[in-house]
Amino acid sequence: MSYSAKYSDEWASNDSGNSNNGGSDYSRGDRGGRGGRGGRGRGGGRGGRGGYGGGDRYSGDASGGYGGGDRYNSREAGGGRGGRGGRGGRGGYGGDRYNKGNYNNYQQQENYDSEQQQQQQQDYYVDKKGRNNGYSNRDNGYNNRDNSYSNNRDNGYNNRENSYNNRDNGYNNRDGFKKNNKYENKNKKSNDEQDEDVDVNEFQALNSKSEGQLDLDTRSYFTRIESLLSNKRNGEDTMDSEEIEIMIENVYNETKGKEKLVACDKRTSFVLETIFQRCKQPSTLVKFFTSFSEVLSSLVQDSNGSRVVEALLRSTFKILNSDKETVDSFNHTLFVLIDGLIQDFSKTIINKYATHVFSSVLTILSGSIKVKKAKENTQPPPKKKFNKDQQQQQQEEELEFTEFQPSPEYTTKLDQVLDRIYKHTTSQMEKYSTQKEPIESLKTIFEVLHKTGREEQYKKWIGAWIKITFDDDNEPSVEKSVKKSFFKSMKDQYGSVLCETLVKTAPEDIYSGLLTIVKDDLVDLCQDLYANHVVQAFIESLQTSSQFLTLIQGCKEHFNEFLEMGRGMIVQKLLEASNKYHTYEKEIVKILYLAVIPKGGSKTDIAQYLLELKNNVSQTQLYSTCGAVILQLLFKFPAEVSKEVIASFIDMDIEYLVSLCINNIGSKVMDAFLDNTAISAAQKSALIAKFNGHFVSIGEDRYGSYSIEKMYKIADFHQKEVIATELMAEEERLFSKPCGRYVLMICQINKYKKKKDSWAKEENTKDKKRKLFSDIINDDGQDSQSANSKKLKQDKFNSSKNQKKKNQVDDDDEIDEIFNKKK
Question: Record keywords: Hydrolase included (predicted)?
Answer without folding.
Answer: no
